[in-house]
Amino acid sequence: MKHVYECSVRFDDLDAFGHVNNVTFAEYLQEARVDFAHRQLVTGNAPHEGVVVVHQSIDYLAPVPFRTEPLQVHVWITRIGTSSFDLAYEVSDTSMLFARATGVLVAYDVKADRPRPVSPAEREVLERYLEPAP
Predict the structure, then answer these.
(1) CATH numeric code, 3-128
(2) 58, 94, 99, 119: least CB-packed within 10 angstroms?
(3) What span, in angstroms and rounded, lies between the C-alpha atoms of 97 and 5?
(4) What are phi and psi of 53, to 5 degrees?
């Protein structure tokens, strides 16, 4: 299963060529990741237990001009480890794929300042969104 986040293109997202700036795609991925976490990954962890991004890669497939229709950012899990998991993303609309991306997140204990194991509750949610990478 994939989580879908609808993301508006804002005027200040555009570069000098009138296309969404490449750095803005990372913001779109972050917005989708946070939406996924807030809607799906609420597991009762302590406030100091969260996740951190340790890697992200984006392949830009087509430019995105200014538009009033939102983009769709699809997010899913491709691997679950002991203390980390991999995400895949696709940024698209109904007719075109604009970007593909991957990321690695590590479960993190902010208070202890170190990685922690993925909790059983987190793993249960992540497994629902587990699909192969594109």
Answers:
(1) 3.10.129.10
(2) 94
(3) 15
(4) -85, 125
Q: In angstroms, rounded to a whole number, what is the distance separating the alpha carbons of residues 103 and 37?
A: 14
61's tokens: 């497939």
Residues 118, 19: Cα–Cα separation, whole Å: 38
Short-list 130, 125, 124, CA closest to 76:
130
Instruction: Read off the pLDDT of residues 64-81 as tens digits, 9 standing for 90 and up.
Output: 999 999 999 999 999 999
What are the tens digits of pLDDT across the range 15-56? 999 999 999 999 999 999 999 998 988 776 766 678 999 999
Q: Is the pTM of this model over 0.85?
A: yes
Question: What is the model's pLDDT at position 88?
Answer: 98
Q: Measure CA 38 to chain center.
A: 12
Cβ count within 10 A of residue 94: 6
Q: Which two tokens stand for residue 128?
A: 């629902």
Q: 36 by DSSP, 3-state: which? A: helix
